[in-house]
Structure formats: structure tokens, C-alpha cells
Design a protein that fits this description.
Layout (H helix, E strand, L loop, with lengths): L1 H16 L2 E6 L2 E2 L3 E3 L6 E2 L1 H12 L3 E6 L5 H6 L5 E2 L7 H6 L41 H7 L1
Parallel strand pairs: 1-5, 1-6
Antiparallel strand pairs: 2-3, 3-4
Pfam family, one: SBP_bac_3
InterPro entries: SBP_3_CS (IPR018313), Solute-binding_3/MltF_N (IPR001638)
Protein name: Solute-binding protein family 3/N-terminal domain-containing protein
Length: 145
């Protein structure tokens, strides 16, 4: 127990002494995060959540827009203190990063235009698709396509 308290203290002390929490966020991820017309001004569910957390721990939130694929490397390079972007928790990510408790169940979907001939996952075979490079759902897309 003493070791746990020591570890928590060591990892949280720098943030408790800081006045600002630098948060990386993907600017095009509605309804979780969306970049407003003003520079570095976000809105969305994740943003509201972080603003409330910052209020409760008496810190200023400083949101930095970046592509989703850059969030993890930015944490490793200490360019940001944390990231929020509807991040899916995977075993590989848990081995490298600390996560909060999950607050949303994630269900991936494929989208196509209504006038598209695609009606089943099998009909996606041979078609082009787009997904974030580090998205854990990409393996399902590769399996189908």
C-alpha cells in the first residue's frame, strides 16, 4: 500500500504543481471534440469533461489540436500532459500508457452513402476505406477488405 501511495505521489506531483494542464485533442472528432473557429478553442463531450476535471483540481486546461495519430507520440515526447479523443483502450496501449476508467462503450461502424450498393460487410471487399492509422478497429477493416 505504501508503494502504491508513493507511486501515485511521484506521478501526480508535477501536475499538481503546474498551473496549466496541456491536453492534446483531435480537432475533428464530433461529438467528442470539435475545433471551433477560434484558435485552440474546442467544444464537445470530452472537452466539457476535461474542463470540469480541471476546475475540480484547480488547473487551467490548455487544449492543443493535433491529428489523432500524433497523440501518443506527443505524450511520449512530453509535448502534452495527456490526451483526450474518445481513445479506445487496448492491451497494447495499456502496456504503454495510463488510462482513466472507461466512460463510454465503443462500437465501431462502417458507413456508406445511402445510394451505395454496399449493404453487407462482405460487399466491402475490394473497396477503398478510410480510418485513422492507429485506430484499433483498422484490423477489422483489413480482415473484411
Amino acid at each position: 500500500m505504501k508503494t502504491l501511495v508513493l507511486l501515485i505521489t511521484l506521478f501526480t506531483a508535477p501536475y499538481l504543481l503546474a498551473k496549466t494542464l496541456t491536453i492534446g485533442s483531435a480537432p475533428l472528432n464530433p461529438p467528442f471534440e470539435t475545433l471551433a473557429s477560434q484558435p485552440n478553442h474546442f467544444f464537445g463531450f470530452d472537452i466539457d469533461l476535461m474542463i470540469e476535471i480541471c476546475k475540480r483540481i484547480n488547473l487551467q486546461c490548455d487544449f492543443i489540436p493535433m491529428p489523432f495519430d500524433n497523440l501518443f507520440s506527443s505524450i511520449q515526447e512530453r509535448k502534452i500532459d495527456l490526451a483526450i479523443a474518445a481513445i479506445t483502450i487496448t492491451p497494447a496501449r495499456e502496456a504503454e500508457f495510463l488510462f482513466s476508467l472507461p466512460y463510454l462503450e465503443s462500437n465501431g461502424h462502417f458507413l456508406a452513402l445511402r445510394k451505395s450498393a454496399i449493404n453487407t460487410p462482405e460487399e466491402i471487399a475490394g473497396k477503398k476505406s478510410r480510418r485513422a492509422q492507429r485506430n484499433p478497429l483498422r484490423r477489422f477493416g483489413k480482415a473484411i477488405i
